[in-house]
Amino acid sequence: MKMPAYYKRLISIFILLQFSFVSRMQAQSGTWLITGSYTDSTHPAGLKAFKYSFDNKSPVQSDSLDIPNLGYFTISRNGEKIYAVSEDHINGQASIKLILFNKKTGKFLLKDEIETLGKHPVYIDLDSTGKWLAVGYYSSAEIDIIKITNHEMLSTPWKTFQVYGKGIVENRQSSSHVHSVRFSPGNNYLYASDLGGDQLLRYTFQAKTLYDQPIPIKAPDQIKLSPGDGPRHFEFHPKKANILYVLNELSGTVSMFNLDSSLTRSKQKVDSDTISPLPDKGSSQVLASPDGKFLYTANRGNSNNITIYKIDAKTDTLTFMATEPTFGLHPRHFSISKNGKYLAVANSKNNQVVLFSRNNLTGLLTKLPNKIVAWKVACVQFVN
């Protein structure tokens, strides 16, 4: 029996009203923004949580935690666990922290911490099983693999890899400096960027084994960058795990690699920082939009901006679209919300997180009116 037209209209109206109600509720509930900061005796709170509703109201700080020099952190998929690197304590010892986050109340709880022998951890990543952490150390050029126990505690490093290399920039590349570590989308590799050695290293990784230990055994594959590039952070294409975009801090460029082909030559190299002179370039962060249509990079130095590229749907190459000022100094890090609608940038030298709305169709950014104040903010992440 065919449904009458007026019934169809009523059903359509009901669905639209329900969708509108859910959208309004989501807008009212807002989003958490977590910030990590470098600290001093008068500003000890290295971790802060802010509730932001994106409706022009001022963000509200819900909690903070005194963690010294929290330069970077990552968050579990459910948003309830934060894994952070504390670059050093008063005694100079670095540490890894596990912090629980209550998404209802916005409160932190320090669950566990371990001291490490590596110097100046600057990056931490959680594998897709949620059981293994990788930590990269800038000064000691090491990579730690750390197991998360069944009791949600941190073990001592299961394995440590030493990285060796050097480059042509004397004051920055006299030795290796591991600046970021990330598990591949398929969780079968661990990648590490060596700013000092102009290289990315790819270690074989196996999360589930007979002895419940990962297996990065063989000598790593080497992905070479151009002399003086200084690779800092890198991003996998959200829809194509074989496409990798590497942001080069020292040369202010982006290199694109197809990991299915030769690892020795990039498929494309484009400028990220077009303003700062070569000795002063300082590109910092690279992220793709969740739909894989746009790539964003942050530039410090004299630029203080975000560069926006369109990603070609067939070739995955980059086409420059625009730059957007960060309305602050020294954008060290930025994040994009899971729905792709917002971007938050951490301007470290003037202690501000500036927020933008993002057009999903054009990729362009529009500054939102309110800012978050966070002392020497180094990292910012969304928690929905």
Question: Quick check: average pLDDT?
Answer: 89
Question: Compute the gyration radius: what is it?
Answer: 21 Å
Adjacency order of strands in the biggest sheet: 3-2-1-28
The secondary-structure class comes to: mainly beta
| CATH class descriptor of the domain at 117-224 | Mainly Beta
Number of helices: 1
- CATH homologous superfamily of the domain at 117-224, by name? YVTN repeat-like/Quinoprotein amine dehydrogenase
Cα shape: globular
Low-confidence stretches: 10-29
Report the CATH topology name of the domain at 117-224: Methylamine Dehydrogenase, Chain H
Secondary-structure element order, as H and E? HEEEEEEEEEEEEEEEEEEEEEEEEEEEE
Could you characterize the architecture of this molecule?
This protein is mainly β. Strands 3-2-1-28 form a 4-stranded antiparallel β-sheet, with no helix packed on it. The chain has a 4-stranded antiparallel β-sheet with strand order 4-5-6-7, with no helix packed on it. The protein has a 4-stranded antiparallel β-sheet with strand order 8-9-10-11, with no helix packed on it. The longest helix is centred in the first third of the chain and has 25 residues, at 5-29. It has a domain at 117-224: Methylamine Dehydrogenase, Chain H (7 Propeller). It starts with a helix and ends with a strand. A hairpin with a 5-residue loop joins strand 24 and strand 25 (342-347). It is built from 1 helix and 28 strands. The chain is globular and about 50 Å long.
